[in-house]
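BUG: 3D viewer hangs when loading the predicted structure for this chain

Environment: internal workstation, default settings.
Expected: structure renders.
Actual: progress bar stalls at 90%.

Input used:
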Amino acid sequence: MNPIIQGLIIAGIGMGLVFLAIVFLWGFMDVLVKVTSGKTKAEKEDAKQGSVIDAEALPFDEGDPNRLQKVAAVAVAIAMSMHKQFSVIKPQDSNSISPWQSARRTQVLGQSAALLNRKSRGTSK
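Structure tokens produced before the viewer hung:
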């Protein structure tokens, strides 16, 4: 048998085994999630039904002239509640640097100065 054909067969077997192992691990993880989730089928159905918004339970109807204001008020309330949950990262001033950056720059400058001192001592002899 040609060595190139033999190498291709070995490579194909290796790739096939890798993909089989990935599929096996995927199935194993799926089984573990189902076993360890701790929810019964009834709880899962209740969670699915609870997440659907009932159109009859909304406080306004299609003909309400203030419908857009009510929708905007609900959207603002949701945004305000989400703003409380997540912290907002404020960008730093472009002129200021963090203490980490200052310490690192000092370290690099110290290393550069030490290197220059060694070079200058070596050339003076």
